[in-house]
Amino acid sequence: MTDLIDSREPTAAVQFPMTRTCPMHMPPQYAELRDEQPVAEATMRMTGARALLLTRHADVKKVLNDKAMSSDAKRPGYLHQIPIPEEIIQFIKFPFVAMDAPEHTARRRLVIPEFTAKRVQALRPRMQEIVDERIDAILAMDGPVDLVRELAAPVPSLFFCELLGADPADIDTFRRFAEVTTNRDAGPEETNAVFAEMETFFGGLIRQKAADPGDDLLSRLVARNEESEEKLDHDDLVAIARTLIIAAFDATTKMISLGALTLLEHPEAVDEILRDPSSTGKAVDELLRYLSVLDGSVRVPTEDVELSGVRIPAGQGVVALNGAANWDPEVFPEPEKFDIHRDASEHLAFGSGAHQCLGANLARVQLEIIYSTLFTRIPTLKLAVPVDDLPFTEGGHVHGPYEVPVTW
Amino acid sequence: MVTATRVVVDRETCVGSGNCVFAEPRVFDQDEVDGRVVLRADTPSALTAKAVAGCPVRAITLVDAAQALGHA
User: Fold this and answer.
1) Could you tell me which of A12, A367, A374, B48 has the fewest CB atoms within 10 Å of its CB?
2) Cβ-nearest to B30 among A108, A116, A356
3) Residue A300's beta-bridge partner residues?
4) Where are the beta strands (DSSP E) in A197-244?
5) Read out DSSP for B24-52?
6) Chain A interface disruption, residue of B12, B22, B27, B31, most A CBs within 10 A
7) Closest residue in A to B53 (Cα–Cα)
8) Would you list the DSSP string of A131-176?
9) Which among B30, B33, B34 has the least Cβ separation from residue A118?
10) Of B18, B33, B58, the CB nearest to A361
11) A234-246 and A154-164 helices cross at what angle (nearest 10)?
12) Inter-residue contact A16 to A325 (CB < 8 Å)
């Protein structure tokens, strides 16, 4: 076992997040780090804080499943994406993804019943309708058409608005919330202003659902909380609504877009999905692994831990790189190869452990419906511009293209 | 003594991902109220291993029947 603090150069050459050189590949540095320095010193790009980056699948999975690894954003040593003054950190109501048990457990349990396997299956027909309507609209246009604008953004937006019980007229507002809060390049002022706006917006929506409940997720959440023994306060419910919207709008849109682009670049995979629709699920898991659009889970050890032979002292924040884990050749041979026949089920794109993405199964179903419908209905679909000309988010918390122009 | 394998779930650890129900709906279900795992059957099927591997918090275990009685 080596002692990291004593054995390494004090200046860290590595920064997080790193930029992808190929939009569909992990940053090349991940592989170097995994081979040479699986627990690597790094600097958080926006805050300058010292971080340790984890790149091995075994270490990332271990950390995500270890109760001694805290997700509490208020804990000293937590690695925030943007600089937030300490006094503000103590006042902010973080979403439950940034809490530990038992606070995390109480909040998550309030939301779980909305995302059970049965509910997700029951949502399929409406999802299919929304996708079909969008593809009707695309087919009625003259190409080229931007798949992000016409499919990847509106499908999850409309679906989630309906699910939550929000007004579809507010979709553009939600999208702005999601884009600003997940953009690492947005300055602290802009981010804070949007957070304040979200408090007001979702606060009003929660009050409205309490006063006049409908058949929707937020109304049921409010009702379930009323019946609960450990009642959460209004701000907690607002934080939950905020989290759901951001997750649904940003990550899902980018995953749909980048996944569609990847399939367009791999026509042999599309042929297979069309020939054997039952292979769509495996293809979706491989896309999730291969693209890892949301990368970097922050944890703080509450006691000294050892990973890959390196001792990490309590309080030293780590970034478990889901994307690096998903490209670990120990688990996924030739990880740079997009192969819908491989067993990608061990991927960590949705995380693992108590914080694993609540909407994982809903997202899988959504991706399956979108890709199978898109390529069945428009089998001649192709990119309208060379892939190198496409604009991608840079340094964002979630990676994806801004536009994907297509023709058919 | 003949021993058979049984499925055991830990509802306290369960985070309600629903992965087990997607993997093997004949053995696993989710409680309507709290979303946490409930067993429809405690005899493992061929797909149960997939559910065990897919549980994000390792709340599903396969034990021999004698051990399972100990759990109860």
Assistant:
1) A12
2) A116
3) A70
4) none
5) -TTTEEE-TTT--EEES-SS--TTHHHHH
6) B22
7) A346
8) HHHHHHHHHTSPSPEEHIIIIITHHHHHHHHHHHT--GGGHHHHHH
9) B30
10) B18
11) 160
12) no
Residue A16 DSSP SS3: strand
Q: Are A237 and A129 within 8 A, CB to CB?
A: no
* DSSP annotation string for B47-68: THHHHHHH-TT--EEEEEHHHH
Task: Assess B32–A contact: CB distance below 8 Å, yes or no.
Answer: yes
CB under 8 Å to A102, separation ≥6 — which residues? none
Q: Note whether B34 contacts A: Cβ–Cβ < 8 A.
A: yes
Q: What is the spatial distance between Cα B19 and Cα A112, in angstroms, rounded to a whole number?
A: 12
List phi, psi (to 5°) of A58.
-60, -45
DSSP A18: P
Write the ipTM.
0.82
Q: What is the distance between the alpha carbons of residues A138 and A164, in angstroms, rounded to a whole number?
A: 26
How many whole angstroms separate alpha carbon A94 and alpha carbon A96? 6
What DSSP assignment string belongs to A66-86?
-TTEE--TTSTT---SS---H
Helix axes A280-291, A252-265, angle to 10 degrees: 110
Query: How many whole angstroms separate alpha carbon B61 and alpha carbon B51?
Result: 10
Nearest CA in chain B to A281: B22
Query: What is the sign, positive or negative, of the torsion defined by CA atoms of A56, A61, A67, A71?
Result: positive
**Token digits of residue A212:** 């006049």
Q: Which of B10, B11, B15, B52 to mutate: most A Cβ within 10 Å?
A: B15
pLDDT 10s per residue in chain A (408 long)? 455 544 444 445 799 999 898 999 999 999 999 999 999 999 998 899 999 999 999 999 999 999 999 999 999 999 998 888 888 888 888 889 999 999 999 899 899 999 999 999 999 999 999 999 999 999 999 989 999 999 999 999 999 999 999 998 998 888 888 778 766 667 778 878 888 898 899 999 999 999 999 999 999 999 999 988 888 999 999 999 988 888 888 889 999 999 999 999 999 999 999 999 999 999 999 999 999 999 999 999 999 999 999 999 999 999 999 999 999 999 999 999 999 999 999 999 999 999 999 999 999 999 999 999 999 999 999 999 999 999 998 766 788 999 999 999
The strand pairing partners of A401, in sequence order, are A392
B40 touching A, CB under 8 A?
no
Candidates B17, B31, B34; nearest CB to A356: B17
Q: How many C-beta atoms surround the C-beta of residue B31 within 10 A?
A: 15
Measured distance CA(A154)–CA(A127) in Å, rounded: 12
Distance between CA atoms of A266 and A28, rounded to whole angstroms?
21
